[in-house]
Design brief:
Length: 107
């Protein structure tokens, strides 16, 4: 499902309505994939989404969201902690393919 959000401090933050199918699905199964909307410069993030309490939301997240989209962050806020990230440039494929592995246990 497409989501708008912000990448800050090594994680993807996004919001969705608390009652949305997306929020309910991620609460039951937090494994997810997030990717950008530019297939020619693809970035694919595989990770785990965690529902954040209001106190857990870094102050920079609503600020970044407002700066990027021009409106306030609303609803339930999730943090996607990356496990693996893939990136590739279509013009330089297959030589451009890159993979990063993240050690979630050690942040």
């Amino acid at each position: 499902m497409p989501v708008w959000g912000v990448w800050l401090d090594g994680a993807w933050y996004f919001s969705t309505a608390t009652t949305s199918r997306k929020a309910r699905n991620l609460t039951k199964n937090p494994y997810c994939v997030v990717c950008n909307d530019n297939a020619e410069e693809a970035v694919i993030v595989e990770g785990t989404a965690h529902l954040l309490s209001e106190e857990e939301i870094p102050r920079s997240v609503p600020v970044g969201y407002k700066a990027k989209y021009g409106w306030e962050l609303q609803g339930s806020v999730f943090k996607v902690q990356p496990r693996v990230v893939f990136a590739m440039s279509e013009r330089q494929f297959p030589a451009s393919g890159t993979r990063w592995n993240f050690d979630i246990a050690n942040g």
